Amino acid sequence: MKENQRNLKSIKLEMALPLLTIFHASILVLFTLFSFSMISHADTENETLLPIDSRIPGGIAVIPLKDKTDNVSFKGKKVWKVNDRNDQTWAVIGIPLSQKVGQVEYKINGKDFSFSIKDKAYREQHLTVKRKHSNPPADQIKRIQKESRLSKTAFTTFSNINKNKPYEPFLLPAKGPISSPFGLKRFFNEQARRPHSGIDIAAPRGSNIIAPADGEVILTGEFFFNGNSIFIDHGQGLITMYCHMDQLDIAMGDTVKAGDVIGKVGSTGRVTGPHLHWTVSLNNSRIEPLLFTEN
Q1: What angle do CA 68, 72, 77 make, to 5 degrees?
Q2: What is residue 131's predicted lDDT score, i.e. its pLDDT?
Q3: Backbone phi, then psi, for 235, in 5-degree steps?
Q4: Contact 216, 251 (CB under 8 A)
Q5: Which pLDDT score, from 0 to 100, does residue 136 have?
Q6: Do domains 60-117 and 124-292 have the same CATH topology?
Q7: CA–CA gap between residue 238 and residue 91 (Å, rounded)
Q8: Which residues is 130 bridged to in the sheet?
Q9: pTM score, two decimals?
């Protein structure tokens, strides 16, 4: 009888051991996953979140600074300084599309420094259009010149908006495919035009346009080429422009938060169909907007 009891206990123990092994393994897996999650979360908290450094015409140079008070300038203009999540300060320099390849100089506290610009072969687009579509009417020249001056004033604005705030990536201002990329070289009847200074997002008419980041509206209007447009100042020479809008939902002087609806997609101005033209300008240089987006 006792022998049978011992055998029964032995059998029960043998049956329990695999279950205990599986239980311990499960606990180990859960602990490992939890630890990995905590480490990943910590890494995300401490990662250096900045615009993408791209030292090409139409790109940006992201340069670490030793001190928050460093004065940085490029081509005689003050440049944007931004802090990352670790409170490190960086200078972000906008590189014009017209910039030649080679070394370019900038200054920190009056001392000369330099970085190298690499070449970028932007796509070309050759179109044959009627003359009336390639050149504006003579009676609109004064209007176009006035609008050009207004735009220049907006693009050269340098304010303290968002100063000392940690950098946050831009949201895309509209949902849709990019129908025309930044830097596209356009030729109308084989006549070279200015390269495309932003991106076109092929969003449906009437769909929402949102602010990609916090800022203040510094210019709105109905422009000959750009149609209904909005300019937002994000601080320290970082300006964004939204064109061909069907409807403006904000006015000059309004403050906006990232994600706020600012208007609707349309086809106003000199365009053939509804889309959003989005320009990002830094120290009065038009740069690739996608360098500022999270994706």
Answers
A1: 140
A2: 65
A3: 100, 145
A4: no
A5: 84
A6: no
A7: 12
A8: none
A9: 0.82
How buried is residue 56: exposed, middle or buried, by Cβ count under 10 Å (0-12/13-18/19+)?
buried
**Percent of the chain having pLDDT more than 70?**
81
CA of 57: how far to CAs of 54, 97, 117, 178, 294, in Å? 9, 4, 7, 20, 21
Of 157, 198, 156, 183, nearest to 98 (Cα)? 183
- Tokens coding 136: 């504006």
In this structure, what token pair is assigned to residue 77? 């203009």
The Cα–Cα gap between 213 and 182 comes to 20
One-letter identity of residue 288: E
At 144-183, the pLDDT tens digits run 999 999 999 999 999 999 988 899 999 999 999 999 999 9
Structure tokens at 46: 């401490």
DSSP β-bridge partners for residue 82? 90
The answer to whether 258 and 247 are in contact (CB under 8 A) is: no
What distance in Å separates the CA atoms of residue 100 and residue 46, rounded to the nearest whole number? Answer: 36
CATH class for the region spanning 124-292: mainly beta
pLDDT tens column, 184-210 = 988 877 777 789 999 999 999 999 999
Give the chain as a 3 state SS string.
CHHHHHHHHHHHHHHHHHHHHHHHHHHHHHHHHHHHHHHHHHHHHHCCCCCCCECCCCCEEEEECCCCCCCEEECCEECEEEECCCCCEEEEEECCCCCCCEEEEEEECCEEEEEEECCCCCCEEEECCCHHHHCCCHHHHHHHHHHHHHHHHHHCCCCCCCCCCECCCECCCCCCCEEECCCCEEEECCEECCCCCCEEECCCCCCEEECCCCEEEEEEEEECCCEEEEEEECCCCEEEEEEEEEEECCCCCCEECCCCEEEEEECCCCCCCCEEEEEEEECCEEECHHHHECC
Class of domain 60-117: mainly beta
Write down the domain spans for the chain: 1-46, 60-117, 124-292
